[in-house]
Amino acid sequence: MLYSLLTNFVDTFSFLNVFKYLTVRTGLAVFTSMFVVFLIGTPFINFFSARQILDPIREDGPSDHIIKKIGTPTMGGVLILLGLFSGILLWGDLSSYLIWFLIFIVGGFGLLGAYDDYRKIKYKNSSGVSFRFKLTTQILIAITGIVFLTYFSDHSELEYLYFPFFKNLIINLGWFFIPFAVFIIVGSSNAVNLTDGLDGLATVPVILVASCFAFISYVTGNIVFSEYLQIPYIKGIGEVSVFCGSIIGACIGFLWFNAPPAKIFMGDTGSLALGGSLGAVGIITKHEIVLAITGGLFVLEAISVIIQVGSYKLTGKRVFKMAPIHHHFEKKGWPESTVVVRFWIISIILAMIGLATLKFR
Question: Structural domain of residue 50, as residue ranges?
Answer without folding.
Answer: 24-287
